[in-house]
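BUG: 3D viewer hangs when loading the predicted structure for this chain

Environment: internal workstation, default settings.
Expected: structure renders.
Actual: progress bar stalls at 90%.

Input used:
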Amino acid sequence: FIDAKLGYSSKKYDQPGKSGFNGSIINISLTNEYSEFTKISLSGHRELVESFYLNNNFYVENKIACSFVYAINHKLTSQLDGFYSINEYNMSNIDLDGSNEKRSDKMIGIGVDIMYKIQPWFSTAIKYTFRERDSNFYAEDYENNQLLLTIKAEI
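Structure tokens produced before the viewer hung:
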């Protein structure tokens, strides 16, 4: 199935000197279930995201993502995820090197997880994710690795 949302966002701050946003926002996703065991999803969006940086109230995120889910059997499911995004900040700031420019980040992420249903109401999963941010502001670059173990009970 296809899900598409198109819109326009206008954000004006009450505080003088804070710049606002006027522009389009988009969210599109395509999901296809090839069989009872296989599903692929592709999505993309352009969204306004609130920022916690004092000089930048928000950034515009342009993101594409994909997900592949394969049920090995009725109890064991695997999933592979990935995304790429470009985040554009609204205000100029001074970087550690003294340059004054608008911040721009490129992010990439991948994840793989395996879920095991012990009972219809009780499951466990292990997930590994990797994220990397490449920013034009040197201090904002990072790589993040996570390994998560989850236990889920539905009542």
